[in-house]
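Data card: per-record layout.
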Amino acid sequence: MAVISTTHAVRNPRRDRLRRKVGDNVMAYAFMVLGIACFAMFSWWPMIRGIILSFQKFFAPAPAFYVGTQNYHQIFADPMFWPAIRNTFQFTGFALLFGYVVPFALAVMLNEMRHFKGYFRFLVYLPVMLPPLVSVLIWNFFYNTDNGLFDTILHGVGIPQSQFTQAPTGVTAMVSMVLASTWANAGGATLLYMAGLATIPGELYEAAELDGASIWQRVRHVIIPQMRFIMLVLLLLQIIATMQTFIEPFEFTGFTDPQTITVVVLIYRYAFAVQDDLGLAAAMSVLLFIVLGIFAAIYLRVTRDRD
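The structure for this 307-residue chain is written out next.
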């Protein structure tokens, strides 16, 4: 009997598995590369270009030229710089006082309601669907000192009319802007709080009701301990958002009032309104980016620890 011998090529199992794994994920890698390319083009490169531009003078359409740290020295010497910093933190503080507490209170009230809950949710969220500029224009009509709604009401009940956004101290104008911002943006935070309230086990509410706890006691001993993480995240997000406020001070008082000018309005002033220097505006943007980056790092750390 003839014996027929055959030879088989030696196969490497590890290499075969690697080839098969790569082949199965080519499409995923392709989408990942496209996503990274989009981020690089529309997010990362503008940030890098902004940092480079902060060390340049750029008066369009003339070409940019490097000036080192001159832009930063010019910013710190600007008499509008420190008022803008003060007003930005003041706006953020008032926004936390109103815009952080009001949505939480609304969420608790809506959660306690037994009837028409969906209708009131719609009413609370309705201002969010308006364009921000439209919301500001509505409140600008309310605050108008000639024929505004609020002054008309005050005059009708015999109370002296008030200057809401033109008050000389600036605090009244700042509070007026915060009220308009809170009305326009509270709906989104309210729905997030209500989503968090829905995750609280019903047994805790039932136990609190059996113990005769009031609504304030339920908020203090049940809701707040269970909502700590969501409240902290929304606090950080609101700080990041309110420190970038632009539409309210720009539309209510313009870009020349030192009592209400904010950092982002000052950036607009540098870039388009007064200096027309994009390099100076980029330097101011980098300073704001550093401050917001600190809060963003805290936000990422908090969410990572939670995960």
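Known properties of this structure: The chain has two domains: 17-70, 71-306. Residues 109 and 215 are 10 Å apart (CA to CA).

See the next section for split statistics.
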